[in-house]
UniProtKB/TrEMBL annotation:
<comment type="similarity">
    <text>Belongs to the peptidase S1C family.</text>
</comment>
<dbReference type="InterPro" id="IPR036034">
    <property type="entry name" value="PDZ_sf"/>
</dbReference>
<dbReference type="InterPro" id="IPR001478">
    <property type="entry name" value="PDZ"/>
</dbReference>
<dbReference type="InterPro" id="IPR041489">
    <property type="entry name" value="PDZ_6"/>
</dbReference>
<dbReference type="Pfam" id="PF13365">
    <property type="entry name" value="Trypsin_2"/>
</dbReference>
<keyword id="KW-0645">Protease</keyword>
<protein>
    <recommendedName>
        <fullName>PDZ domain-containing protein</fullName>
    </recommendedName>
</protein>
<feature type="domain" description="PDZ">
    <location>
        <begin position="284"/>
        <end position="385"/>
    </location>
</feature>
<keyword id="KW-0378">Hydrolase</keyword>
<dbReference type="InterPro" id="IPR009003">
    <property type="entry name" value="Peptidase_S1_PA"/>
</dbReference>
<dbReference type="Pfam" id="PF17820">
    <property type="entry name" value="PDZ_6"/>
</dbReference>
<dbReference type="InterPro" id="IPR001940">
    <property type="entry name" value="Peptidase_S1C"/>
</dbReference>
Length: 401
């Protein structure tokens, strides 16, 4: 099964150079896990989960969704009510001029207004050419330079300005100026999503503005490596809500009308297999872009595998020497000369705690390391053949962009 990142969604109407095709591969997880333990072969790259708390936006984030809307019976207008709440903040983003024109394949996608001041979140691939021109100093004639046009649901059109973007997460911030306060979306949380929950995808597929499709959450943590995506990509929300060319950057919302994801890509050769960036990831990216103009990602030079009781039991059956743990982070591989190697971390180690966390997750560790780049972080590690826990102080460096 083939997947298209970006190219089919929004930029598929003309943006060149961003589509990436990958194959989904079925894995024999049991043999892979045993191989990871026996041969120190990495199973899952230490991908950067960018989910985190964003001070600017979490004050407006609802915490009552699960105690309210989710428990209410699904009525004939439940989906329509959710769409009506989110729709005014959904925009159509079109890149005009430059190497492409409106009628010969202008990159087009969607976006969502985060703040009444005109701050918009969209996909980076939609505005990639405009961002590149800005970084190069905007050389050439004004007519040849790409212009970002932002159309609101009520018909108003603004010229947008690309503030910053992060290629790895495929997220960008665009700003428009308005004399009046603009409608903005209410951000939810992706942490509480459940498989089978109803969601809506809003956007402008095929230049058809103000379109809404509905479906359910098919998977809440689809791994980037399962989609053949390399690098520090976060997990994705998988949904069967129709996401088509032009939906890129548009919101995925729950029945409370809260944004829980940003539409990102779809399966090229199948219907009902689409993916969105979790909104908790997007919040963190936005905060990093606003604070630093870039996303600061940590590097320590390891591969990680999240352990649960089932995986640990499987590995223990394969090797009785495997520590008696029910949770933790297995380190199958350590890069020579890396910060982890210099700190004394070894292949086969199991991280069972850090910074007071006794149920560590790969996402949580990466987030903590990212907040402490250049500062020591103490890890509690179980090591085969060593009695008790071993304490290791590790200092993350910023990963090259």
């Amino acid at each position: 099964m083939h997947f298209v990142w970006g190219g089919v969604l929004g930029a598929g109407l003309g943006a060149a150079g961003y589509a990436g095709i990958a194959n989904m591969k079925m894995r024999d997880w049991e043999s892979t896990l045993i191989q990871a333990w026996k041969n120190n072969v990495g199973v899952v790259d230490a991908i950067s989960n960018l989910g985190g708390r964003v001070r600017d936006f979490t004050e407006e984030t609802s915490t009552s969704y699960w105690s309210g809307a989710a428990r209410a019976p699904l009525g004939p207008h439940s989906l329509a009510d959710a769409a009506a709440k989110a729709a005014p903040a959904v925009v159509n983003v079109t890149l005009q001029g430059g190497s492409q024109g409106l009628f010969n394949g202008a990159p087009s996608g969607s976006g969502v207004i985060l703040d009444p001041d005109g701050t918009i979140l969209t996909n980076a691939h939609i505005v990639a050419e405009a961002l590149q021109q800005r970084r190069q100093g905007g050389g050439g004639s004004r007519a040849a330079q790409p212009t970002v046009h932002v159309a609101l649901q009520d018909g108003r059109v603004f010229e947008g300005r690309v503030i910053s973007a992060d290629r790895l997460s495929d997220l960008a911030i665009v700003k428009i100026e308005s004399a009046e306060a603009l409608p903005c979306a209410r951000l939810g949380t992706s942490a509480g999503l459940r498989v089978g929950e109803w969601v809506l995808a809003l956007g402008s597929p095929l230049h058809l503005q103000n379109s809404v499709t509905a479906g359910i959450v098919s998977c809440v943590d689809r791994k980037a490596v399962e989609l053949g995506l390399a690098g520090p990509n976060s997990d994705f929300i998988q949904t069967d809500a129709a996401i088509n060319s032009g939906n890129s950057g548009g919101p995925l919302v729950n029945l409370a009308g809260e944004v829980v994801g940003i539409s990102s890509m779809k399966a090229l050769t199948a219907d009902g297999v689409s993916f969105a960036i979790p909104i908790d990831t997007a919040k963190h990216v936005v905060a990093q872009l606003k604070a630093h103009g870039r996303v600061v990602r940590p590097y320590i030079g390891i591969k990680m595998l999240q352990l649960n009781e089932g995986k640990a039991s499987m590995l223990r059956r394969a090797d009785p020497a495997f520590p008696a743990v029910k949770a933790g982070i297995l380190v199958p591989q350590v890069s020579p000369g890396s910060p982890a190697s210099r700190a004394g971390l070894r292949p086969g180690d199991i991280i069972v705690g850090y910074a007071g966390q006794k149920a560590p997750t790969t996402a949580g560790l990466i987030r903590t390391l990212g907040e402490q780049v250049g500062k020591p972080l103490e890890l509690q590690v179980l090591r085969p053949g060593s009695p008790g826990e071993v304490s290791i102080n590790i200092v993350a460096v910023e990963a090259p962009s």
